[in-house]
Amino acid sequence: MFLVSQADTLRQLHQDHLSSYNNQEQQAIELIGLLNKLYNEQDVQVTLFGETLDTTSVGQVLALHQKAALRDTDAQPIAIADTLAMVKALAASSDIQAARVDVGQLIANDSDIQSALQAINTDKQAINEATDVVLYGFGRIGRILTRLLLSQASSAKGLQLKAIVVRPAAAGDLAKRASLLERDSIHGSFAGGVSIDEDNNGMVINGRFVQVIYANDPSEIDYTAYGIDNALIIDNTGIWKDEAGLGKHLQAKGVQKVLLTAPAGGEIKNVVYGVNNDTIGDDTIVSAASCTTNAITPSLKVLNDEFGIENGHVETIHAFTNDQNLIDNYHKADRRGRSAVLNMVITSTGAAKAVGKALPELSGKLTGNAIRVPTPNVSLAILNLNLKKAPESAEALNEFMRKMANSSTWQSQIAYTDSTEAVSTDFVGTQHVGIVDAQATIVTDNHATVYIWYDNEVGYSTQVLRLATQMAGINYTQIPA
């Protein structure tokens, strides 16, 4: 009798869970429809604690709600019904446009969407026109940027990827480029359709035509001949890093601004979005600094603001990159000629010095080195810091970093994990720029050691696109402010 009763109970439990999940799936489907409508018709983007809700995946939407749990160890997962109710209210307001709404922050702070909307002066909201974007170079970062740009629902506003520029190549190059975009050994298959248009020398990616242009020199291209004008060039090649070299892009017809995805020299500003992007002004050439600089600078800023940093050392345990050799061979740089897949390779990093460019108050206070290790993606920065004000404990410092990660100001740049099982592959594909590993934090008097994980491809690319959005003059009203 007991076994029969237990079986009935478990059967009912299974049925209850299935029924609940089916109900959530239906709500997610309805939510996705509203999200697409808001994005396409009103240029309104909805996020959950800074993370974009995927408008093509019911599973991702539900998983993100479960994972969010108000980003607090004592909180319950956010109910998708609450998000749906907020988005319905948002969709009912035809006045709102060009806005980025974080429903996670609104729910966490018990905010009412109507009150949040009333606080906005809709008369001052500008419509974001389309900005043509050209990716100059189609390597690791170029392809990640393409995935990020074209995984979103199609829209006639905002950043519009119009062309990719690569060096002249042999027959079959177009098919190979498309294949590299479609299949990736690290990030998996592209969530969408990719085909080639041989007649027009381009690719059709998720229904959008992207021209492929072959050129040896940036100044020789006439982009207007391809229907591209006032374009933002995102240079992913790393070949030119000064004003003379990058200025070649501005000599081409149809180009307005240039964004470099590498540290720049000379007078070009190295910008970390969220930290010093307010310094850009009318600059036509800007650098997005390096992946490591972007990963550590936000955390260094909040730590410096709270505790003060006397000095410190940054050690990066960095995934190997394309500039290293698979097996031992000649390389112009010290040690990098040795096999990347067989060795840990000590090398230099400019990240510590570059922090001072984005955060002048730390200029000259940090040293740095890097160790390239045999993993293809996700790196780890170790911040060894001498602080002016000693934290009470490692737990106190972690609690401070958790609050920063949960704040609307830093939620896109700083994330936080206290998992005892976290390893590097857990962070492949994360769009957060740097993830503080609370389990590894060490505090001894006024000395603190903080470990920060980062996907040196995807995390960095999200920062590049935030910077590109600003350079294009695209502005969104933030809700909540």
UniProtKB/TrEMBL annotation:
SMART domains: Gp_dh_N
GO molecular function: glyceraldehyde-3-phosphate dehydrogenase (NAD+) (phosphorylating) activity
Enzyme Commission numbers on file: 1.2.1.12
Top EC class, one word: oxidoreductase
InterPro entries: GlycerAld/Erythrose_P_DH, GlycerAld_3-P_DH_AS, GlycerAld_3-P_DH_cat, GlycerAld_3-P_DH_NAD(P)-bd, NAD(P)-bd_dom_sf
Keyword terms, alphabetized: Oxidoreductase
Domain Glyceraldehyde 3-phosphate dehydrogenase NAD(P) binding: 131-291
A Pfam family assignment: Gp_dh_C
PROSITE patterns linked: GAPDH
Family listed: Belongs to the glyceraldehyde-3-phosphate dehydrogenase family.
Name recorded for this polypeptide: Glyceraldehyde-3-phosphate dehydrogenase
Organism, as annotated: Psychrobacter coccoides
